[in-house]
TrEMBL record:
Gene source species: Streptomyces canarius
Transmembrane feature ranges: none
Pfam family, one: PDDEXK_1
Bias (Low complexity) ranges: 31-49
Protein name: Recombinase RecB
Region of interest (Disordered), residue spans: 1-68
Biased composition regions of type Pro residues, renumbered to the chain: 20-30
SUPFAM superfamilies: Restriction endonuclease-like
The UniProt record lists the keyword Metal-binding: no
Domain PD-(D/E)XK endonuclease-like: 63-311
Coiled-coil residues: none
Keywords associated with the record: ATP-binding, DNA damage, DNA repair, Helicase, Hydrolase, Nucleotide-binding
Amino acid sequence: MDSSIDEAAAQPGGAVQTPPATPPRTPDPAMPAATEPAGEAAPRTAPAAGGTGEERSAAAPTSLSPSRASDFMQCPLLYRFRVIDRLPEKPSEAATRGTLVHAVLERLFDAPAGERTAPRAKALVPGQWDRLRESRPEVTELFADDPEGQRLAGWLAEAERLVERWFTLEDPTRLEPAERELFVEAELESGLRLRGIIDRVDVAPTGEVRIVDYKTGKAPRPEYAEGALFQMKFYALVVWRLKRVVPRRLQLVYLGSGDVLTYDPVLADLERVERKLHALWEAIRQATETGNWRPRPTKLCGWCDHQAHCPEFGGTPPPYPLPVTAPGPRTV
């Protein structure tokens, strides 16, 4: 079973078809502030020094992705800042490195199987960094105080180490992904739209599907594994709703620690996730209509870009940009 997945043949469209109207995006699915699929607001990047940035516009959310679902579960106010207010966030070295590594691993599969080597992958890093700077000029701010380029060199070297470690966890010469950076979207019977971007889909000759996600951080402790798998079960639910196929395996590849976390879902898992997402969406709908977005303080607040707007830190949120209605009875 596992070997058949590992030796999956390249069959474009064998798992899920990309909607033809979907525009390409810069991949960054590893980090919370990743670019979201079209149709769902994501945090804007702070404008470069001297720039004015874009005018802020607000709209009620119309769909749910794994990262935005995680935002709401972590802190409803964070979800509001990112999706409703679309407050800018500064790029971070860790998130940008994740974007770079993902781009390298995606591009490596453009080469014939026998040429997918660690040296070739590492050689892709400089060119992908150049492309990233062209598509997202704001990332150059990360090294504005590094005129000699020493910190940048170390940062790029760490990206190369992460890429090289991947070869100890998977053998790309034996893989022919059916899809890479695959946009998926499904509408549930309730009308809730789920969408996201899957790093890699492998399809075995027998038709079994494996969903793979790369993480540039370290694997979580066992007691936090369920939270880490939420994103993967979300994707599995979308695939099931689209193709009526339960993926055989969900696989998280942690390049930071050299670990691989796998889970073989069953239909009951996906049904539980669907119920959870419906409850989550109802809570988001209520908060959107009433304007009642409560902060949820945790240790993660120390990494939040929005402390100046958060009441927990003495800040004041910006004026709520959507109409507010009186709270009514909750529906299930």
